[in-house]
Amino acid sequence: MAITSPTEDLLVEQDGAVLTITLNRPDRLNAISVPMLSALSATLQEANRDRSVRAIILTGAGRGFCSGLDLKAQGSGDGGDAVQLGRAGYQMFDLHNSPPIVINRMDKPIVCAINGAAAGYGMDLALGCDIRLASENAKMGAVFAKRGIVPESGGCWYLPRLLGWAKAAEVAFLGEVLDAQKSLEVGLVNKVVPHDDLMTEARTWAHKIANNAPLAVQATKRMMRLGQDETFEAAVDHILLQLLPLTQSEDFKESLSAFAERREPQFKGR
Length: 270
Prior knowledge:
This protein has 270 residues and is of the alpha/beta class. The protein folds into two domains: 10-210, 2-enoyl-CoA Hydratase, Chain A, domain 1; 214-261, Lyase 2-enoyl-coa Hydratase, Chain  A, domain 2 (Orthogonal Bundle). It has helices at 34-49, 72-76, 99-105, 121-128, 144-147, 155-163, 165-174, 180-186, 198-210, 214-227, 232-246, 250-261; strands at 10-15, 18-23, 55-60, 64-66, 110-114, 117-119, 131-135, 139-141, 177-179, 191-193. The strands form two sheets. The chain has a six-stranded mixed sheet, with helices on both faces. The protein has a four-stranded mixed sheet with strand order 4-6-8-9. Helix 6 (155-163) packs across helix 7 and helix 10 runs antiparallel to helix 11 (232-246). The longest helix has 16 residues, at 34-49.
């Protein structure tokens, strides 16, 4: 059964083993509303379960990737569709199933195609993805310190791990907007490409990932994630526990046959 979106604010399209999820509120620079939070989490969780999906692309419609949480109604005093902050606001969040936590738990690789501004919550969403490709028009808005808040959706955890302490402190404490080239220089993105080439590049990367053995890719991601918080010896033990079942998989046998026959392997994810 094809994966569908429960809201027009989130577009879903599958091309072979690659699922593209597009934040679709271009008039608001794809600011995240409350319905979008649950829709994005549900779509990601379904993609993680779906054996036909091997890689995911996350991007935004229009000229922005994601400008953050939708605070318009919050600022105007109108409850509306905005995300409510403050003491009462936490009642509106299912933190265990919020998009940043769901993304962090995902076994399927996620390529983030940053087509424009990624600010606040939007920047944290991008940081949670495994690979970040940026349009030349992209900007990373690490402006939390200028808003009187902290990177609440993963930034404090991701930045020092991605950049090292000193660079993370520079990005977080200065609170500046980084253009695409600066984002590349500090290590926030993997590559910068011409704007019109962004989705072609993202699909190329995603399909290359999807063509590899999916069980091995997902196990590698799990081990990389666990390895950030465990000792080397514990990591080796856990890797062996992952490796032994993989050597019994059909995909492993297919890889050996393909190598011997000098052809490209056809992996089936089992």
